[in-house]
């Protein structure tokens, strides 16, 4: 008999790693299971990280955070959000504290009672039960992760047809489109030195593929659909563009495509394109409850859409084309943001999944039947795995990529610029902010396994927060502490790392600014601009419309940019007006009030200083690709003007195409 234990009402098979909880099944990755076994062997005692590494990995050299990632995945599977079961002892190790019981003790007795009640229901509803039980039940686990590409250049976004994969390869500041035969390992270039938009799609016969290609029409950037004939090794513009980005086309059949059209402010529509001559594209009307579509895929005659509804709830929709509209067949609620998830894929019929839908988000697979989530599988990998295709045998193709960010400081003095990288880790560091009245720099980093708040001083980098991922932060106006948001909750942290929760009546999406009054400027979950009184916790809506970014002046006047345009406006006395000296510019990203002046970047790579009291704006510097997205400024106006800017910048993108095997087996009761 296989040995099982119960932790947190989760029945864990220590041979297979299967977990059963509230009617769902999932499976621990082998190394995560091995870590659990070691913790169980030392239950109630602290075991050092070194001993854990030696017992699980032996002599194999692994990434520094490999153990921490396994602990994080294990806590998630056990529902150990408050870290009471797997306890961390800094610089010492970990301890499994929660008693683990055999699955044949009290839990099994409860299970027997439950089964008795179930049989009573079955006796009354036999026919219904027989119909339900006829449906196959499966448990899933992941097999080997196999690299399909190995080049040092970033390779990503694969599509597959039989033994051929098409994918993008980064080539300097441009991209190549490649086709690889997995049998012969031969690769040929379909198009080089281009810019592509969206995903690649093979035709049902595998003799053509279509992709969105970035171009310029009358000086305006857009994306056209380009069709490649693989047999003739020729291509043609299938559908030209003007201002819109046409991309991510999927084949409804050999003669019709469905594609996405996205405008400059990221509004997206779906179109049906017949491939017969002189047939214009037809806009598809979405079901009324769909507000926005982020990803979609076509399986047989059904379209699966991933997006948000009118109430901003993340969902999957199964739809079908009826004339010029999509009719909804099924809806599934998502527990993660659709905007950040992969496109939905259909597991192949036959030996894997019986046609279930799978989507990836933050290195987890979410598997659904036609109506609900049936299981999740963790993907233990130092790289971010994003699904892009599934082959005919049910194996998944994914991009294993690392797109890290780094915090860079650029200093100008008398028009001379000098760059210094504030962070140089192998992880993603972003959102650097100068300490008011001090020399430290705070930033967000995922170097500890999840995004946390860090502090960089002249001597060292210090982690300030350790729990749920941090979404945003601002310095307290006096520079003695920081405010941050995590899972919509507002919290306060001292420079010594003492965290204090702060209760407010609304969920926080983004913190923008802290004032000395004291107040916090923030965006709520609907992106409305709010002000939080940090003495009382009371909130007030300042602008009941979606806002992208905002700052408040000492006078109380608010400067903001709406979500649908990169323009700067001012709000005062319940009136919204343009900022005239900056009316013709398009904002690059955010802007910041420093010493009652506003510093910002524009799309023409200029840095402006706007003085609201004088209603005057002037260009004080220029920036380039090495100082892309400003996150803070310092400005000193003296005999020799000095300007410093912190910015988020892309580190080198590393990516390869991998294949993830999925194994399924019937559940034996």
TrEMBL record:
This is Winged helix-turn-helix domain-containing protein. SMART domains: Trans_reg_C. PROSITE patterns: OMPR_PHOB. It comes from Pseudoalteromonas fenneropenaei. Keywords: DNA-binding, Membrane, Transmembrane, Transmembrane helix. It comes from the Bacteria. CDD domains: trans_reg_C. The keyword Transmembrane applies. Residues 2-98 form the OmpR/PhoB-type domain. The chain crosses the membrane at residues 113-132. The keyword Glycoprotein does not apply.
